[in-house]
Amino acid sequence: MDTDYDAIVIGGGSAGLSFARHAAQLGRKVALIERAELGGTCVNRGCVPKKLLWTVADALQRGSGLTRAGLLGPNPQVDMERLCAARGKKIESIRHSYRDKLHEAGVALIEDTAELTAPGEVTISGQRLHAPRIVLATGGHPVKPKMEGADLTCDSDEVLNWTALPGAIAIIGGGYIGCEMAAIHAALGVRVTLVTDTDRVLTEFSEAAARVGQRNLEAQGIRVITGCTPDAVRRSKDGLELVLDSETTLRVDRVVAATGRAPNLEALGALKDRVALTDKGVLKIDDSFETSLPGLHAVGDCADRLPLTPVASSDGETLAMQLFGTHRAPVDLSHVATTAFVLPPVGEVGQPSSDAIFEEATLSPLSAALRADAPQDYWGLGGSEAAVTSVSLVAEGAHEAIAWAAQLLLHRPDRETMRRAIGVHPSTSEELMG
Ligand code: FAD
Q1: Could you report the per-residue pLDDT of 147-198, keeping only the tens digit for each?
Q2: How far is CA 143 from the centre of its chain?
Q3: Does ligand 1 have an atom closer than 6 angstroms to the CB of 139?
Q4: Which of 6, 101, 321, 342 is the most buried (most CB within 10 A)?
C-alpha cells in the first residue's frame, strides 16, 4: 500500500466521498478511509432508508384516508419483509455505485479505522500514512437522553433497521427526525405517541409551518405531548413504560430516542486537545474548512455547518476545488432548502423567523377533500413586498417545490414580480403565486 498522498480523507459518507472524487478528478493522489459501510449515514442509516419507508407510508396514509371515508376498499397493509428486502437491495446498489465511482476516479479506498497520530499523519492498523492535507469527514451519531433507563431506548439507526413493526411506540424528541419517525410509523399502522420538551414540534422550522405540521401529525392519530421531559424508561411485564411524571406512564413496545446527534471525533486521537470545537461540540472551521490545526480540514456533520447531505456533498466538492482547483466560496446556508418528511412534508428555505413572514395562508387542499384524515396545507412568504427572502410550504410535493423556491430566492424577487408567474390549478402553489 502507498503511504504518501496529496490528501487523505477519513470517512466515506456524503462529505468524504464528494471530496475524494473531486480531488482525484483534479489529478491528486487521494486515499479515503472508511471503517464501516460506504455511503455513511445518508445511505445506510438516514435519508435513503427513511425516504424509502416514507414513500410506502405516504401511499398508505393517502389510501387509508380514502378508505376511512368509504371511497376505497379495505386498507392496504405494508409487507415489511418485502419492503426490507427491496430497501436492502437499493442500499446495496448505491454502495456499489460509490465503490465504482471511487475506483473510476482513482481514489485509494482503505477499509479500516483511522486515527490522526501527528499533523499530516494518519495511522491505520499500525501503518502510518502521510499527506499535507487531511480531511475529517467522520459524520455523527445519535445521542441518547440522560435519564433512567436510557439504554432501553432505541435510536434512529436501530429504527431504520426494524424488520418487524411494534404495536405501539413512544418517541422522545420533536425535531425533524422524531416527527418523521412518528408520521412514517403511524401511517404504517403503529400507535405513536410523540413527547417533546419544547412547546411545539419541528422547532427547526418557522412557527406557523411547524404548527400546521403538528396538526397534521395529530390528524394522523399521533398523540403529541409538548412541554414534557420524561423521567425514566422501565421494563414492564409485556414491554416498556415511559414515565412522564409521577402520575403519567405510557405503556409501549418500544421507546425511540430522537434526542440529537454528536460528531464522531475519535479519529482526532491524541491531537484532540489541539483542535478547537464550537459551543455545539462540532469542529470549528474557517471559510477554507480548515480547523484550528493547520492542514487539518473538516466537512460534513462533524464540522460547524448544516447537518444535511446536500451541504456535506457541496462542501466536500468546494474544499477539493479550494485546495486543488480554482477558488470557490462555500454555499450560503441561508439558501439551503430543508424538509421534514412528515405527511404532507414541511419545506422551508431562508430560515424565516415568525415576525419576518408578511403573507401566509392555511388552507384545506382539494386533494384532501375526499379523505377522512384531511391534512391541512400552509404557505408563507418572509422578508417584505420589496424583497422576498423566505418561503415556507406544507403541502404534497413540498420537498420538491421548496428546492425551486431556493433557486428563486437567489434572485431576491419582489412580491409583484412573483405574481407575474402563474401556478397550476387546482394546487396549493397557485394561491401563493396569485
Ligand atoms: P456520515 O455520512 O455520517 O459519514 C461519516 C463516515 O465516517 C461514516 O461512514 C463513519 O463510519 C466514518 N468514520 C467515522 N470515524 C471514522 C474513523 N475513525 N475511521 C474511518 N471511518 C470513520 N439529510 C438530508 O439532507 N435529508 C434527509 O432527508 C436526511 N434525513 C436524515 C434522517 C436521519 C434519521 C438521519 C440520522 C440523518 C438524516 N440526514 C438527512 C442527515 C444526513 O444523513 C447527514 O447530514 C449526512 O449523511 C452527513 O454526511 P457526512 O459525510 O458528514 O457523515
Answers
A1: 999 999 999 999 999 999 999 999 999 999 999 999 999 999 999 999 999 9
A2: 15
A3: yes
A4: 342
Q: Which of 211, 217, 253, 263 is nearest to 233 (CA)?
A: 253
Q: Provide, rounded to the nearest whole percent, the portion of the chain with pLDDT above 90.
A: 89
Question: 11 and 137 in one domain?
Answer: yes
In this structure, the answer to whether residues 160 and 213 fall within a common structural domain is: yes
Q: How far apart are CA 58 and CA 79, in angstroms?
A: 15
**DSSP string for residues in 130-153:** E-SEEEE---EEE---SSBTGGGS
Single pTM value for the model: 0.97
Q: What DSSP designation does 302 have?
A: G
Nearest to 189 by CA among 174, 169, 204, 173: 169
- Asked whether residue 372 is assigned to any structural domain, the reply reads yes
Q: Are 272 and 324 within one domain?
A: yes
- For the chain, how many structural domains are there in total? 3
Substitution candidate for ligand 1 out of 9, 14, 21, 42 with most atoms within 8 A of CB: 42
**CATH no. for residue 429?**
3.30.390.30
CA of 68 to the centre of ligand 1 (A): 39
Of 259, 278, 293, the domain-final residue:
259
- Is residue 1 situated within a structural domain? no
Domain that holds residue 205: 150-259
- Ligand 1 atom with the smallest distance to the CA of 17 is 51
239, 352: one domain: no
Asked if residue 434 has pLDDT above 70, the reply is no
- The mean-pLDDT minimum among 301-305, 319-323, 348-352 falls in 348-352
> Which CATH number do you get for residue 37?
3.50.50.60
Cell numbers that stand for 347 in this block:
419545506
Q: How confident is the model at residue 386 (pLDDT cuts 50, 70, 90)?
A: very high
249 and 194 inside one domain? yes
pLDDT for position 354: 65
Q: What's CA 308's distance to the chain center, in Å?
A: 5
Domain finish residue from 282, 312, 333? 333
Q: Can you tell me which residue has the cell 424583497? A: 387
Structure confidence by residue, pLDDT tens digits, 95-143: 999 999 999 999 999 999 999 999 999 999 999 999 999 999 999 999 9
Q: What is the DSSP string of 345-395?
A: -EEEES---GGGEEEEEEE--GGGTT-SS---EEEEEEE-SS-EEEEEEES
Active site residue 141: no
